[in-house]
Amino acid sequence: MRTPTFCGLTGFFLIFSVSACGVGSAVSTSGSLASNGSGVSSASFPGSGGGSGTGTICGKKSIQGQIIPNVDGEGDCGVEGAVLLQSVSGVALSSQPTVTCDTARALNDWVADTVKPVMSRAGADVETIQISAHYACRGMNGQNGGGLSEHAHGRAIDVSGFILENQRQVRVHSDWNSPEYGLALREIHSGACGPFRTTLGPGSDGFHEDHLHYDLGQRGSPLFCR
Ligand SMILES: [Zn+2]
């Protein structure tokens, strides 16, 4: 179990002060905790309709979402300094992934520096990134017995595809070898190496044939990009 205090987070009333979490502006709000059944606690905001409570987070205008209470998962699972991400660099995310701000910033950099320019060149601007996994209390590659996955700490995110402005869906599973988007997907995947410490995709190890896995790795670890 993790202690429920981080970045000035107190109970159900959350006061985030400037710079405590690298937050660019002070946010004061209240909400109630709800479990989604998978160990993820999320904040619901009275009368929000899903919209309010969302704004600039993680100290970057290009990162939009909500700050939520720490996720206290089973065993060593959990996320300290958790946020629900809505968009990065103007590109929507198909679900609101629960991650840390470090993960959010890496995703933001990758989208701005690689995904957007590569997709624009390949055909059309990217509108939405399809997220297939984010926080999850599980072992590496979804296996029991190994160490905990970076997903178990909100430090990893899986991407299964992209929806372009012309509504074309580019999927890792079916487009990795397509004449139209195969090269673009490879370039996009290569560009994640740097913002993220570990990158895995089709051909890496057999566990990532239908999605791209990106995580921040252990602190100080060398890049592991396949
Ligand atoms: Zn993953």
Overview of this structure, please?
With about 230 residues, this protein is an alpha+beta fold. The chain has one domain. It contains three helices and 18 strands. The strands form four sheets. Strands 6, 7, 10, 11, 12, 13, 14, 15, 16, 17 and 18 form an eleven-stranded mixed β-sheet that branches. It has a three-stranded antiparallel β-sheet with strand order 1-2-3, with no helix packed on it. A two-stranded antiparallel sheet has the order 4-5. The radius of gyration is 17 Å and the shape is globular. The N terminus is likely disordered. It binds zinc ion (ZN).
Helical amount among residues, as a percent range? 10-25%
According to DSSP, the number of beta strands is 18
What's the tally of helices?
A: 3
Major beta-sheet overview: 11 strands, mixed
Task: Please write the string of helix (H) and strand (E) elements.
Answer: EEEEEEEEEEEEHEEEHHEEE
- Structural class, judged by helices and strands? alpha+beta
Parts with pLDDT < 50 across at least 5 consecutive residues: 1-51
Brief overview:
The chain has 226 residues and is an alpha+beta fold. It has helices at 101-122, 172-175, 182-190; strands at 9-10, 13-16, 27-30, 32-35, 41-44, 55-57, 60-67, 71-72, 78-79, 82-88, 91-93, 98-100, 126-133, 156-164, 169-171, 198-200, 212-215, 224-225.
Helix-strand blueprint:
Blueprint (H helix, E strand, L loop, with lengths): L8 E2 L2 E4 L10 E4 L1 E4 L5 E4 L10 E3 L2 E8 L3 E2 L5 E2 L2 E7 L2 E3 L4 E3 H22 L3 E8 L22 E9 L4 E3 H4 L6 H9 L7 E3 L11 E4 L8 E2 L1
Parallel strand pairs: 11-13, 16-18
Antiparallel strand pairs: 1-2, 2-3, 4-5, 6-7, 7-10, 8-9, 10-11, 10-12, 13-14, 14-15, 14-17, 16-17
